[in-house]
Write a structure and sequence with these properties.
Layout (H helix, E strand, L loop, with lengths): L1 H32 L2 H7 L1 E6 L2 E2 L3 E3 L6 E2 L1 H12 L3 E6 L2 H10 L4 E2 L7 H6 E3 L4 E10 L16 E4 L4 H8 L3 E4 L5 H9 L5 E5 H10 L5 E3 L5 E6 L2 E3 L3 H16 L2 H9 L21
Parallel strand pairs: 1-5, 1-6, 9-10, 9-11
Antiparallel strand pairs: 2-3, 3-4, 6-14, 7-14, 8-11, 8-12, 8-13
Length: 285
């Protein structure tokens, strides 16, 4: 009888240990799936941005402080989530790798939402809407009068942007830059080192206004591809995504997005879809 009792006791203890291990595994799996718990525990939101993309992410000339439309959106978002935000500055290619590896929690740099990107990353609801434009030389429009005239032109930009995809799709020669400031892009078009910069209309409008003596302008007739931009988040961080989307909805409802947009985009409200005639709709990945 004693032997039987000891056997039953060992069996019960084994079941308890196994149950405990099973619970630990479930708890570990839950924690693994919900990486946003670490953000809450540490109280820090790590965000990748360029610091060179005026007026959405740049350094104020007087204070050297990192600011801009998207930077301030993230700062306000973090404040409402009771988090401190740490920005890490890098090029656009590095941002995707940093999000994927967990080096940062999200990327904020006027990143357009595309179907292929949505397969690899989660995006917040859009906080900016726009469409494509191109910077050309002021005197001759760089010889570009229709999209097909991009063939053979030297197109400046980042290697993996949708705008470089579009220009290469029309036969332009890519001239790749890595996280340089807008004045460098514009200066090189003006002096003939390159011919054109394809990019977001609102960003380019502000860049041209900021550097009026470089001999460039936005092409007056060619507008293409309506776009929407969101914050990039690693797939699986669903709690973080939900909190970000809920907070962005609050900021839209109370007018914060509109207020920040008008501050950085010369009175324009980029938080709503623009009403503009699109001359080309080019499919990109």
């Amino acid at each position: 009888m004693a032997k039987k009792f000891r056997f039953m006791l060992v069996a019960c203890l084994s079941m308890i240990v196994l149950a405990g291990c099973s619970g630990d595994k479930k708890e570990t799996a839950t924690k693994k799936e919900d990486a946003s718990d670490k953000i809450v525990e540490n109280g820090i939101l790590k965000v990748a941005t360029s610091g060179t993309l005026y007026p959405t992410s740049f350094h104020d000339q007087e204070t050297s402080e990192l600011t801009g439309y998207e930077v301030e959106v993230v700062k306000e978002l973090a404040k409402r989530l009771d988090l401190e935000v740490n920005f890490e500055e890098m090029g656009i290619d590095g941002m995707f790798s940093a999000v994927n590896s967990g080096q940062v929690d999200m990327a904020a740099n006027d990143i357009d939402i595309t179907e292929s990107r949505k397969e690899k990353f989660d995006f917040s609801t859009p906080h900016k809407y726009s469409y494509g434009s191109m910077i050309v030389r002021e005197d001759d429009l760089s010889g570009i009068h229709k999209m097909e005239d991009l063939k053979g032109k030297k197109s400046a930009g980042g290697a993996t942007t949708i705008y470089m995809q579009i220009s290469e799709g029309f036969g332009a020669e890519p001239i790749i830059y890595d996280n340089v400031t807008n004045d460098q892009y514009l200066m090189d078009v003006g002096n003939g080192r390159t011919d054109v910069v394809l990019n977001d209309f609102y960003l380019q409008s502000m860049a041209v206004k900021a550097f009026p003596d470089l001999g460039v302008k936005i092409h007056p007739d060619l507008f293409y591809n309506p776009t929407s931009a969101g914050l990039v988040i690693k797939k699986g961080n669903t709690n973080l995504l939900e909190k970000v989307n809920d907070t962005l909805a609050e900021m839209e409802k109370d007018g914060t997005l509109k207020e920040l947009s008008e501050k950085f985009f010369g009175g324009a409200d980029v938080s709503v879809e623009p009403d503009v005639e699109i001359t080309a709709d080019v499919k990109v990945d």
